[in-house]
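Deviations from the work plan: none for this task. Representative record:
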Amino acid sequence: MSAPRTVGGSSAEARAAWWLLSPALLAIGLFFAVPLVAALFLSLTDFDLYGIADLGTVRFVGLGNYTDLLADPRFWRAVKNTLVFAILGGPLTIVAALFGAVLVDSKLARWKGFFRTVYYAPVVTTLVAAAVVWRAFLHPTFGPVNRILSAVGIPGVDWLGNPRWATLAIVSLSVWRTFGYCLVIFVAGLQSIPTSLYEAARLEGAGTWRLTMDITLPLLKPTTFFVAVITSVGLFQIFAEPYVITRGGPLEATTSLALMMYEQGFRWWSLGRAAAIAFLLFVLILAASAIQLAIRRLRPEEG
Amino acid sequence: MSRSCRARFVLALLAATCISACKRNDDGRTTVRFWAFGREGEEVRALVPEFERRNPDLHVEVEQVPWIAAHEKILTAYVGDALPDAAQMGNTWIPEMAALSALAPLKARIARSKSFDRGDSFAGVWDSNEVGGELWGAPWYVDTRVIYYRTDLIEEAHAPWPPKSWDEWRTAMERVRALSPDHFAILLPIDEWAQVMTLGLQRGAPLLKDGGRRGHFDEPQFRAALAFYTGLFRDGLAPPLDQSGVANLFQQFAEGYFAMFISGPWNLTEMERRLPPEMQTRWATAPMPPPEAGGEYPGTSLAGGASLVVFRGAQQPEGAWRWIEYLSEPAQQAEFFRRAGDLPSRRSAWKVTGLADDPRAAAFLTQLAQVSPAPKVPEWEQIGARLAVATEQVVRGARTADSALAALDADADRILEKRRFLLDRAARLRATERHR
């Protein structure tokens, strides 16, 4: 497009642009900004079931919801659970996805499309259906997982009844469910690395290990960063897996922040408290993303 | 639920209410809108033609709501002013709906009506409909929980049966447990609060105090109930499974993984349907035992079931009331039982249908004479969930009973804070009014 000819023309163009943008802006304002501000306001009140009946019972509590939450060991328990999910699940997902991507992308691999589909399938399955199958798999006495373990002489564990194992079970389900998506992104990243680099390095006598460490991983860094952010944001908001598999138990060991928020809001109708949890979760995700960004900025020469 | 998903849900709801609200009847009849849940919503339709024949000026429109969405949908409709005229209502929800002032009072109407006879019904069930001295619902069908058990295992173990005290019950469990090392005596899902609360009610534990203003679990009666309950897990009589850990109740019951479980009448038909034919002669039901030998038999169980309510904002309160009166008549109660299998709230309907002579249903009839509702505060479900967590902590050894109960009282006090504030404010207002 040519440069604007006159000042008037440019403002007419700008006006047109605003007109064209207005439906999107309106939608964003209506469905994003307004609820956001409303939720922020809600988090400063004790709006609950009684408030639904009679607005006169709603009290403005200032930062009361926030101070209550920060003093509540159950909130910190949920923060800890959420962090454990993110710290365990994030790297596992990335390693699994990268490993899978290298295998699928390998020149030696046959039926690449088939494997890509197989690995991607969990992403598009209905979580509830998958969760039912997982639950049956992990049943302490009737589940195949424990049967296989005991067949090779390892005593089975109560997967969903023991707080530690239940956390691991939820993380595994989450990794299984999301790694296919990351794998597809990694495959795209791998394919964008020019083969000439590998050929040149091979001529210089580099082995597979050197190729991976000095070409594949550095050049995949932007992809890895993207995948890391997406995965960790997803894991910080983990809800469906514990909701369907353990309902937050045993002993609230798998109650994530998002699950706690749901329970407070839509099970007990403490909407003010739930809104406050939402904002604290937002701060947590923001902080985690900022840390990841800072790590990446620290070493710009590699990025 | 994501933001866009929620927005779509609200839009769909709006559209649905508009369509139903905008509908007019051309034939001059008044339309009464009625919500019923799950299977009941399907089966109650069959009772409509007779009602419309008797009331030519009325037309009943039944809308079926899935059970799982019912509670949320009623609340949303209440906020959006889109409630029907009348509905079925789980009686544990009545205190909450009464606190919302969503319901119309029914006490005076019921007292005047010829369709009701409280002597022909179950006192504990009526009690569950009463909040603050007013009746907010009329019992439609009733349920309570009794013990389902394997007759063959009980016999083989020479267990004292039916148990007439907690001691006897425990002895029965120990003997059944001794039959096989990898089978259990009883299934008590660890994340359910109903059983441990029922045991508390049996001992006369108040659960809450100061008119439902504070928790009162840390007291001798409830402590005794908790000790009995958690002892069953500690001594290996009950497996520490939660509801999701029970892969298939019927299959595991048939395999003898456990010999007893506590459940409601819905499982009478389910068991007949799902247990293999050779199991059909090997199970029965028994009422709950009282805590002490020689105590009143049976011991208390939970008063459950569904009631019929008229909403305060009903457009057709008269029509809605006539519909509810009709559904409460013994003949309609009997007909509804034949269709839906829900236990009638009228004793006379039990006789008409032959239900009173069915040995498996008889345990329910005996039990229904001795039922009591959960504490009638809108926050009870939330406190109950904390009760389940506290019980689980004790069972899994994460906490001692003393510390779990103290924490439970603190939780209950926190949950009831708003209720205390509102009750005290109302009391202050009344006091100033008197002063003037």
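Chain B has two domains: 3-144+303-357, 146-301+376-419.
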